[in-house]
Amino acid sequence: MHSLAGEFEKVFSAANSGNAEAQYNLGVMYAMGVGVPKSDVEAAKWYRQAADSGDAHAQLKLGASYAAGRGVPRSDLEAAKWLRKSADQGNASAQHLLGLQYDEGAGVPEDDTEAVKWYRKSAEQGNAKGQYNLGIMYDEGEGVPKSDVEAAKWYRKSAEQGHTKAQYNLGLMYGAGEGVPKSHLDAAKWYRKAAEKGYAKAQYNFGVMCDTGEGVQRNHIEAATWYRKAAEQGYAEAQYNLGVMHAMGVGIPKNDVEAYKWFLLSAAAGTELAKVNLSVMEDRLTPEQRGEGQRKATQLFKRLKPDR
Questions:
Q1: What are the residue boundaries of the structural domains of the chain, listed by start?
Q2: Mean pLDDT of all residues in the chain?
Q3: pLDDT tens digit sequence for 35-85
Q4: Given CB 3.0 to 4.6 Å as the disulfide criterion, which of 60, 224, 240, 303 pairs with 251?
């Protein structure tokens, strides 16, 4: 078995001799800190040498480095330049990222048609991110005529590879019957897949389905579990529903202080019904209980992950 240090020396020697594959691999080693101290600057340096020799993977990495300002000064122009070189060689990840550049007007003129072109090239090679973004373009009618059928088709391809947001969006389409036959069963299936990966919107939607018994057996305990997962990520609608469940003792033990806490958080995010329920709860609670609820809400607010 070779030591990491020995492997580094072998790759370093080949890279210094001008071997593009070794230069790329050396960049990866620096980027990950494998056999050598981690250094984004050194990684970018070796990616550039391999990229100059035409290595598509290195061109992708160098483009991504410029887009993120990692090891090099951030530059959308340089990012687009190197991503295009890689994309023109058929690299699916670079094609997806170049599509994003056109989608956002970063380093290139904003152009939905060009974005679709590159997303499609990536998607047709099986890139899940490219498939998802192509689905978005069809969903919103940007760069292509709006088509729910095409949107659902590309979301499905991406979702079947485990793309979380594609799974959620496919759940939405089944729930609304857009581009696919309406099916609460299939909506619940895809929401659950995304929910299990921690996506707050999906956790909330799956909680609603458990709450109402649409697509799954009605189960208030399960509903409360999923509302809590979303609520703890800062999802206001879930915070409100969890407050209602605590106030009523449905699916979880009745607890007015907990209900008050969740209504406070949801109201702070702008949920009107939570604001109404706050006044009801304040009449029900003692000053000490209100103080406890406020302290709990403040503590949780400080560590909540914001909804994205």
A1: 1-82, 201-303
A2: 95
A3: 899 999 999 999 999 999 999 999 999 999 999 999 999 999 999 999 999
A4: 224
Q: How many angstroms separate the CA atoms of 192 and 199, rounded?
A: 10
Model confidence pLDDT, tens digit, residues 238-274: 999 999 999 999 999 999 999 999 999 999 999 999 9
Superfamily covering domain 1-82: Tetratricopeptide repeat domain (1.25.40.10)
Write out pLDDT tens, residues 201-245.
999 999 999 999 999 999 999 999 999 999 999 999 999 999 999
Angle at 239 between CA 233 and CA 241, to 5 degrees: 140
